[in-house]
Design goal:
By secondary structure, the protein is α/β, with parallel strands linked by helices. It has ten helices and eleven strands. The two termini are 22 Å apart.
Length: 283
């Protein structure tokens, strides 16, 4: 099965470099990497043109204008030009351990009624500043503390509990494992059947919850496979204001529709909510 990695980016070029470095050195390589640019002012495309020459992995670049936080639309842009049977989503501030992609793909090949959503180690600002590109390339993550490692183990156990007991719940009652859009994996056929991200979510918050709930309503189960191979989130100042979710009202409205059995987004991959142009470059 072909593997597409879809990375959303908005500036922070140094973070993207580390993200890609951890992907280039995976034990299992993807077939393509698609960079979804949400209107960066930094020269993301110029950087990609330079580094794409050093790998056999196919690169694609898709850019939309920056009109606020439009992560859902940006990810849909990437999926629209993807070729993979397995879609692995990254935010550009996420790096992963050496066998992360192999663990993800192996699980989905054996469990095609699941999506994967792992919980990341969250580095502090100091740890992020200290972590070098060489350490990322060699997967030297000794900077991670026992407390940070224990936190994702605890989350793994919690998510495992929900994965098992979800079979006993009505689909509308399945809320965990929570879909984390910054690092997740979904089979292509499932993503298309729910029509991808709902593009009415503009601004920070709730777009991942909405997609996860629709995947559950479709009949999928969620899994956290990040016990030994896991994502690592580089620190940055939050996009939100003290956790305020500007999409709370629309999220609650759509939740009623989903609970009624409608798992397909009205405005998503095949019915775009906004129609500003996107730039596509095949590298």
């Amino acid at each position: 099965m072909r593997i597409s990695i879809i990375i959303t980016v908005f500036n922070r070029l140094a973070y993207l470099e580390k993200c890609l470095s951890s992907i280039f050195n995976q034990s299992l390589k993807p077939d393509e990497i698609i960079i979804c640019d949400d209107g960066s002012t930094e020269d993301i495309l110029g950087f990609l043109k330079r580094i794409s020459k050093n790998t056999e992995i196919k690169f694609k670049y898709v850019r939309q204008e920056h009109k606020g936080f439009r992560a859902g639309r940006s990810r849909n842009n990437g999926v629209a030009i993807s070729e993979g049977d397995i879609l692995v989503f990254f935010d550009s501030d996420v790096i992963v351990t050496r066998n992360y992609l192999k663990t993800t793909v192996d699980f989905l090949l054996k469990n095609n009624d699941y999506f994967i959503s792992n919980y990341p180690v969250r580095l502090t600002k100091e740890q992020t500043n200290l972590l070098t590109l060489n350490e990322v390339e060699t997967f030297d993550f000794s900077i991670i503390t026992f407390k940070q490692r224990f936190k994702i183990i605890r989350q793994y156990i919690e998510d495992k509990f929900y994965s098992v007991t979800n079979r006993l719940r009505k689909r509308s009652k399945r809320k965990a494992p929570k879909l984390r859009g910054g690092i997740c994996a979904i089979l292509r056929m499932d993503y298309f059947e729910v029509n991808g991200y709902d593009e009415r979510f503009i601004g920070w918050g709730n777009e991942d919850d909405n997609l996860g709930k629709r995947l559950y309503m479709k009949g999928l189960n969620g899994a956290n496979t990040g016990l030994f191979e896991f994502p690592i989130h580089l620190y940055h100042e939050p996009f939100h204001n003290n956790g305020e979710r500007v999409n709370k009202n629309i999220a609650n409205e759509l939740k009623k529709e989903i609970n009624a059995g409608n798992f397909k987004a009205e405005y998503g991959l095949n019915n775009r909510y906004q129609h500003d142009d996107v730039e596509v470059v095949y590298l």
